Amino acid sequence: MSENTASVSAVPSTSSAPAAPAGVVIAESATARGRRARIALRGLQILLALFYAVASALPKLIGHASAAESFDELGWGSAGMYTIGALELAGAVALLIPVLQSVAAMALGALMVGAFIVQIAVFAGQYAATPLILLVPLALIAWARRGHNADLLRLLRRAA
């Protein structure tokens, strides 16, 4: 059954829900659509976490020549490089922890705004599109997982 079509229920249902009478058109349930959306969002989070951990944080944390050169040009040196790498790695891990997902996406988004500004101001916009492109899925995750922020606040209040 495609997403935009309805089905005719003529076969008895095997679920515990009451079966629809034969010939009654039943639209696709919002629950199934919501489940697919949650799975897609989770997949996006995993892809972003892998990107931030492997492609972005790892070169900084191992002191790869390309990362070191960029941070030296900025005047931030190895301390800045390791700090940004650690923040990216922490954000990548937090994207996978349910209660931290929204906050992690917001924090990584703020880091991307900073990266965009640096790309424009220091590197003449050479790779300025990358942080802007990453802002879109991060904003989606922050918004979609915003309900977890209340859970995080409850945990923090309970711990205090």
Automatic annotation (TrEMBL):
It is found in: Membrane. It holds the Pfam family DoxX_2. InterPro entries: DoxX. It comes from the Bacteria. Its main location: membrane. The keyword Membrane applies. The chain crosses the membrane at residues 39-59, 79-97, 104-122, 128-144. The keyword Membrane applies. Keywords: Membrane, Transmembrane, Transmembrane helix. It is a multi-pass membrane protein. This is DoxX family protein. It comes from Streptomyces olindensis.
